[in-house]
Amino acid sequence: MSLILTPNLPAPDDFYEKLINTHRGLSDEQSRDVNCKLVLLLANHIGDPSVLEQALAVAREGYETA
Amino acid sequence: MLQTYSYPEFPYVQPPEQISGQVVRKTAVVVGAGPIGLTTALDFASRGIPVVVLDDNNTVSIGSRAVCYAKRPLEVWDRLGCADRMVEKGVSWKIGKVFRDEELVYQFDLLPEADHKYPAFINLQQYYLEEYLLDRAKDFGDLIDIRWKNKVVSLKNHPDHVRLSIETPDGIYDMETEWMVACDGAKSDIRTMIGAEFTGQFFQDRFLIADVVMKADFPAERWFWFNPPFHRNQSVLLHMEADNVWRIDFQLGWDCDPDEEKKPEKVIPRLKAMLGEDAEFELEWVSVYQFACRRMKSFRFGRLFFAGDSAHQVSPFGARGANTGVQDADNLGWKLKLVIDGLAPDSLLDSYDAERVYAADDNLKNSTRSTDFISPKSPVSKAFRDAVLDLANRHSFARPLVNSGRLSSPTPYAVSPLNTPDSDSFAGTMRPGTNCADAPVRVDGTDGWLLNQLGAGFTALYFSPDGTVPAALAALADAPVPVTPLVIGGTVEDVKGLVAQRYDATPGTVYLIRPDQHVAARFRSFDAPRFTAALNTALGKN
Q1: A36 in contact with chain B, both atoms CB, cutoff 8 A
Q2: What is the pLDDT confidence band of residue B2, given thresholds at 50, 70 and 90?
Q3: Is A30 in CB contact (< 8 Å) with chain B?
Q4: What CATH number does residue B64 fall under?
């Protein structure tokens, strides 16, 4: 299966608002921890190794090794 | 410190070649009388290869060191006639528990299936293990010549032999050998002498190891803590050993002074924090280690082989060091014997390199992954680790991600040049290149185990429809490289049906099994030409 890179969220603004709200009132460190959990939860939900690999690659695009 | 064990001091005897001044060419030399060197020597001797073992020391391992021995090495030691004593003295276990703070977050069972001769793991102080291997070596008489206080100081690797200079308390003497195996550990002098690379990853972390004598009521399980209340922000590992000795590993981090941390006045408060102010215990041995995951590019240099930590070093989580080293020895002996006897080409020995490098990479991968989880190298790596542990408390999905060490299991030689890939359809795990599963059997009315029925050479494990053996299969027992039939439903009774189940056998199924108890090929029916072709492939003739 291919990673979906076209619009797939039924209500993009709703999701985005909820994402930002989730981080409201958190320190940078706490936000980082919440993001980590979110990645793990979603990765488990997706499950498909090839989709996950594509997502990791797309997310990493454009960053040189520090 | 208290001692539950008195270390033997083996006598140094001046070597006859040093007295005579004659340079003698031996058949095989093993350097290092640790678990891997001794296993190699036992395997060689069991096949009739005379072997000289050189060791620069004159006693067994100090401290528990490797401590955890897995099922497969026990099966190898059983083939060599010395496993039962280890199991009897050792502490058998199969359950691992992982705690975070005070809560149990993950639990695993390493041998969920019954009906195997050996347990998933035993814990045994390395000194006992070496003592038992040395006792077994005595049974081989002159075939095993162990020379204490013999230190190799230089070597020259020739195309048809290796020449060694060896230092003893009486000076230096020279020796030649047709074949040589360096089992001299992670800091191998032999490796340095040939200038071979040993590359990989170093980890900026240290662990304190303590052998503690105490009466405690922890169960015989592997317990691992992340961030326990008694050792905040670090990890701790606990194992039960023989003689009421407990092995405790404390993660220290990078910014510690290893010499300072070894002092009892530093160690005892750590133990009291863990065990309670009033706990009665005695320290037996303390060490601090730093770990690395690295290997040599190749484990074969002509007549010289590397086995164990000298060839590949892994971090300790997962007990993959000594356990995989024993499998190096298991892999080499039969091949060398066939080449020495002129029954297989030299290229068979290249398969030692191919198969054991493949296994080393599997071990390195697993132990590097464990180390990245236990000792995260960056803030984000630590954040992911802690997120996994947080989630694992409440949600089962995160528990398989918890990695406190993936414990040693044999690596199937999935891509070995000695394998004949399946042409018939099979289910199950016994693919070519895999070590044979054990199962209960009955032979001549006596209960036993399948692996004990496999001989020193090649075996044809044949599931007979009617108790008989095809004449062409029986005839293989008299071939130059004999293949001995082992007939399930004939001389061997599959008492619980587990042999057929574990090997996905139907009537007529036949497996070609290597002398190191690995599957070389399997077929749904015996056909002499394709079976012989598989044997030739397993002999490195392709």
Answers
A1: yes
A2: low
A3: no
A4: 3.50.50.60
What DSSP assignment string belongs to B177-245? Answer: EEEEEE---TT-HHHHHTT---EEEEEEEEEEEEEEEE-----SSEEEEES-TTSTTSEEEEEE-GGGE
Q: How far is A53 from chain B (nearest CA, A)?
A: 17
- Parent domain of B519: 440-538
Q: Calculate how close chain A gets to B59, using CA atoms only, in Å.
A: 49
Domain end, chosen from B340, B367, B394, is at B367
**The dihedral sign for the CA sequence B392, B395, B396, B398:** negative
Q: How far is A43 from chain B (nearest CA, A)?
A: 10
Its sign, for the CA torsion B416, B417, B421, B426, is negative
B381 at A interface, C-beta within 8 A: no
- Which residues in chain A touch residue B388, judged by CB atoms under 8 angstroms apart? 40
Using the CB atoms, write b or e for B215-247: b if 16+ within 10 Å. Answer: eeeeebbbbbbbbbeebeebbbbbbbbbeebbb
The kind and range of the H/E element at B340 are helix B321-340
The candidate with the shortest Cα–Cα distance to B238, out of B227, B252, B249, is B249
B182 and B36 in a common domain: yes
Given the DSSP bridges, would you call strands B235-240 and B245-251 parallel, antiparallel or unpaired?
A: antiparallel
Q: What is the pLDDT of residues B222-259, one digit of tens each?
A: 999 999 999 999 999 999 999 999 999 999 999 999 99
Residue B9: count of CB within 10 angstroms of its CB = 11
CA distance B100 to A66: 32
In a domain, residue A2? The reply is: no
CB of B305 closer than 8 Å to CB of B352: yes
pLDDT at B10 over 80: yes
Per the structure block, which two tokens stand in for B437? 């599963």
Predicted local confidence at residue B542, as pLDDT: 81
Measured between beta carbons, the chain B residues lying within 8 angstroms of A32 are: 380, 383
Residue B293 phi/psi, 5-degree rounding, is: -125, 105
Where is the domain boundary, B367, B391, B411?
Answer: B367
Report the pLDDT value the prediction gives residue B1, as an integer from 0 to 100.
66
Residuewise pLDDT in 10s, chain A (66 residues)? 899 999 999 999 999 999 999 999 999 999 999 999 999 999 999 999 999 999 999 999 999 887
How much is the average pLDDT of B94-120? 95
**3-class secondary structure per residue, B493-538:** ECCCCHHHHHCCCCCCCEEEECCCCEEEEEECCCCHHHHHHHHHHH
CB environment A1-25: b (16+ within 10 A), e (fewer): eeeeeeeeeeeeeeeeeeeeeeeee
Q: Is A42 a member of any domain?
A: yes
> Residue B260: pLDDT above 90?
yes
Domain that residue A44 falls in: 22-60
Rounded distance between C-alpha atoms, residue B158 and residue B156, angstroms: 6
- A–B CB contacts, 8 A cutoff, strictly below: 25
Summarize the confidence of residues B255-279 as an average pLDDT: 95
Report CB contact under 8 Å: A36, B397: no
pLDDT at residue B408, rounded to an integer: 93
